[in-house]
Specification:
The chain has helices at about 20-30, 95-100, 110-125, 135-140, 150-160, 200-205, 220-225, 265-275, 280-285, 290-295, 300-305, 310-320, 415-420, 425-440, 450-475, 475-485; strands at about 1-5, 10-15, 45-55, 60-65, 80, 190-195, 210-215, 235, 245-250, 255-260, 320-325, 330-335, 340, 345, 350-360, 365-370, 385-390, 395-405, 410. The chain is α+β, with helices and mostly antiparallel strands.
């Protein structure tokens, strides 16, 4: 049973484990303002807003793709759809601005666009900040429109503040939360399990070691929407308190950094990355839309073990570790030892990732991350390269080169690393590194690129790295860039 608030009204509904929020709305509850476009989290037509209490108890709304959000994750949350925004004839500023700026034609994508604008409006209300082009791009980047063109939609975003604040009072009404004393014990026989502590998660894993685990659902739920899969039992890790922490720590080997809980969303992680790893933060904006970053997690991206997952190569380049939990207790291992073969990992039956260690940048360390994909935004990688190194007395030290899309697993280029370690970053060393890639990888051909394309792209990314290092050391950046274009 799912208990939540829907547009200010208490709602209770039953649903099978694989039901999405979109399916619940349209097919069970008859709330049809939210539209289905792609059913894969790409187009944004199904965008809704989900509210949950922040640290101060005030509701914080984030946008989400209803088509790939598990319906059971609404439990104890406040769901807002386009159907509930207007108060009689009084439109919400997001709606009024879209009308005034002629931001809609066929209207199919409009409900999702309005909900993205609504979420942006809520964020501005709670934490006013300049509405820069970058913020607009982030807020609307997950909403596609095939007939209007984006200019009037952007105009509407900039125009919201000029419209009367017709904001439903029920937006601040949080779903009732049970006290600890009234909270029922976790039903281990339920089809959709929602543990709230690590101890409860271990109980679930011990009882149901083959159950499907879900965090953001941005990948797993495609099995339901695209392949019509049925899930016998699902364990949702997003409510586990310990998996939502970001803890600063120092490891036994002396490295300091942060344990990132496996249920921490990309959106929550962004401020930390923007402070310490610019290149990693920039990658997140190419990983997916705002809706995806609001739901997707670092833990899920690693556990998914896809050879074209965006974050594993970066974590490999940084020397990350994993903390695993299960019925037999807790253990740690380097990320290098986690990926075994295509979609095969070192997880034992009944184990789950609880946290990922993100090291603090070492003194003098530089990280570069470059992603190649058919679309610049919101697309899957064909090849991704992540490179970390230090320059010490003119030579490269602690070189770590990792790639996605080049093997059955995310993988470091050990031979290429060896070719650069202790060498000056010159053309000779990098030529040897590019040649060594042949020993490191035998990529496959698929719809995103041929094997030859991948080999050439990986080599070119290393050449790009050489030019970037040279540019940082030269007094003539223009000369270096002209050299890059010549190649």
């Amino acid at each position: 049973m799912i208990d939540f608030m829907l547009n200010g009204q208490p709602c209770r509904s039953e649903a099978s484990p694989e039901t999405s929020v979109l399916e619940l709305l349209r097919e069970t509850l008859g709330v049809t303002g939210t539209k289905e476009g792609c059913a894969s989290g790409d187009c944004g037509a199904c965008t809704v807003a989900i509210g949950e209490p922040g640290p101060d108890g005030e509701l914080r709304y984030h946008s989400a793709n209803a088509c790939i959000t598990p319906a059971h994750q609404l439990n104890g949350r406040h769901l807002v759809t386009v159907d509930g925004l207007a108060q009689g004839d009084a439109l919400h500023p997001a709606q009024a601005a879209m009308v005034a700026c002629h931001g809609s034609q066929c209207g199919f994508c409009t409900p999702g666009i309005v909900m993205s604008l609504f979420t942006l409006h809520e964020q501005q209300r709670q934490a006013p900040a300049p509405l820069t082009p970058q913020r607009l791009e982030a807020a609307l980047g997950g909403n596609l429109c095939r007939c209007t063109g984006y200019r009037p939609i952007r105009d509407a975003a900039m125009n919201m503040e000029s419209h009367p604040e017709h904001r439903p009072l029920w937006l601040d009404a949080a779903a009732p939360r049970e006290s600890e004393s009234d909270k029922p014990r976790l039903d281990l026989d339920a089809a959709f399990l929602q543990p709230t502590t690590l101890a409860e998660l271990n109980e679930c894993l011990a009882q149901h070691p083959k159950a499907r685990l879900v965090a953001g659902g941005t990948d797993l739920w495609l099995e339901s929407t695209q392949r019509l899969a049925r899930f016998e039992r699902v364990i949702d890790v997003t409510r586990v308190a310990e998996l939502n922490d970001i803890d600063e720590t120092t490891l036994e080997d002396g490295r300091s950094g942060w344990w990132i809980g496996a249920a921490v969303s990309y959106s929550r992680l962004e401020p930390l990355l923007e402070t310490h790893y610019d290149a990693f933060a920039h990658l997140l904006h190419r990983l997916g839309s705002q809706q995806v970053r609001n739901r997707g997690t670092l833990g899920g991206n690693v556990a998914n073990a896809s050879p074209i997952g965006d974050t594993p190569p970066v974590l490999l380049a940084l020397g990350s570790r994993l903390r695993l939990v299960g019925p037999e207790g807790e253990r740690e291992l380097p990320l290098d030892e986690f990926f075994l073969d295509y979609k095969r990992t070192a997880l034992r039956e009944g184990e789950a990732i609880s946290a990922i260690f993100l090291p603090r940048p070492a003194e003098g360390q530089t990280l570069k991350v470059w992603k190649l994909s058919k679309r610049r935004e919101d697309d899957i990688s064909a090849v991704l390269g992540a490179f970390a190194w230090r320059l010490e007395n003119g030579v490269m030290r602690d070189v770590r080169l990792a790639f996605g899309g080049m093997a059955a697993i995310p993988k470091r280029a050990a031979h290429a690393e060896a070719a650069l370690e202790g060498q000056a970053p010159d053309a000779v060393a990098f030529r040897a590194a590019r040649e060594a890639l042949i020993e490191d990888f035998q990529p496959m051909s698929d719809v995103r690129g041929s094997a030859e394309y991948r080999r050439l792209s990986a080599a070119n990314l290393l050449e790009r790295l050489r030019l970037v290092i040279a540019q940082a050391e030269t007094d003539s950046p223009r000369e270096v860039m002209l050299h890059a274009y010549a190649h």
